[in-house]
Structures are given as structure tokens and as C-alpha cells.
Amino acid sequence: MFVVSLISNLKLDIMKALLKITTVVAFMFIAAISMAKEPKLILTAYSEAKMLVLELENVSNNTYIKFKDAQDNVIYAESVSDDLYFKKFNLKELTDGTYFFETDGAFKSTIYSIKVENNKLIILDKKEIVKPFFREVDSRVFLNLLNLEKKDVMIKIHDQESRLVFEEKVTEEMIVEKTFNFSDAYEGNYTISVLYGDKSYDKDFVVN
Q1: What is the pTM of this model?
Q2: CA-wise closest residue to 171 among 192, 201, 200, 149
């Protein structure tokens, strides 16, 4: 009984240690992304005026904003490149219903759910989606993805003729880390696709 108890306690200690390590790694991953040039976002709703005010700082060249209705129709879209961005959105002409305001940056997307009802505007919730992080070093491409919900992740690589040259399904992984070595690949254009949840992200890579 003592030996069984000792083994159980040892397994529990190991599990706790692994959990701590995983948590630290996840925290470091988030911190690394946060330190990158990702826009600082403030979205303010003025309910009675039915107005949204968007403020962005540290805007990169690949930041996009969209305003969509519940049917996913794009009402407004813009590519933002100014380091400081300020804009008012007058929504007085909108009919009652649910709308979505989205900012799409290099490392994450932020989606606000907005409700218009009885001449008032309310922000219902905010959702952040971390995007895959790609890094190129010589003939290699490094992929990192923080997958807190442990969703299935499908990774595919296609060549310029749209032929599938690599495919892998990753399951039950909180942190997905992959290295793709193109040093022996034929010259041409390749696309690395990462699919998880209902999102798909692509990275193009040229082999000379």
C-alpha cells in the first residue's frame, strides 16, 4: 500500500510539474507575441448617439478593419497603415440587429459583437483569436501556434502547381511548433496552410 501511494504521489507531482512548465511556455509565447508590433486597440461605444470610436496605436502595414452584419456581409472595410489611427463610425442608419467589428493584425484578430436595439448601441463581448506565427530563417520556416482550446490543427504544404507535398494533423496540442526545411526542395513557390477551428491561415515561401 505504501509503494502504491508513493507511486501515485510521484505521478501527481510529475503532472503538476508538467502543468507548470506548459503554463510557463504558453505565457512566454503570449508575451513574445505581445512584444511584437501589434496594434493597441480601444473601441468605445456611445450608446445614445449610436456611434463607435476606434483608436489604434502601433499600427502595422497589414492591419485591416471590418464591420459586418449577422449574415457576414461586409458593411465597411479598410486597410490601416498609419501609426496612430482614430475614426468615428456613425451607425444611426443601421437597423436593429447584431453586428461584428473586427480588427485583423499580424498576430491576432479581435472581434467585437455589437447589438443595435431601440435606438441604442451596446458592445456585447470581445473575442481574441491568436494567429499562427511564421518566421523565416534561410531555407527554413518556423511555425508556432498557441492553441489553448486544443483544437485539431491541420497543416498542409502545396507547391506552385497546387500539388499537396506535405500534410499533418496535430491533435490535443496546446502549443504547436513545427520547422519546415526547404533546403532540398525544388525551386518555386510554396504555400504553408494552417487550418484550425473555422479559420485558415497561409504563408507563402519562395525556394530559389
Answers
A1: 0.64
A2: 149
